[in-house]
Amino acid sequence: MINLSNSSTIAALVALGIASVTWKLISVRRFYKDLPKPPHSFLWGHLNLWGEIMALFPPQTHYQNYFTEIAKRYDLPDVWYLDLWPLGPSFMVLATPELAMQVSVVKVYHIHRWVEYFLDVLFGPKVIAGVNGATWKHLHHMLAPSFSPTAVKGQVDCIVEHVAVYHNKLRALADTGEQFSMQELTSKVIFDIVSSVVYGFSLLAQQRGSQFLEDFKTIFNLGPAYVETKNPFKKLLLWWKMRASRERSEKLIHQKIKERHAALFGEDKYLQEEKRAKLCVMDRMIVQQIEELGPKARDGLDPQFVKLIVPNLKGLLAGGQGTTSDTLCFIFLLLSLHPEVMSRLRQEHDSFFHSDFDETVRMLKEKPTKTNELEYTTAVIKETLRLFPIGFATREAPPGV
Question: What are residue 41's DSSP bridge partners?
Answer without folding.
Answer: 45
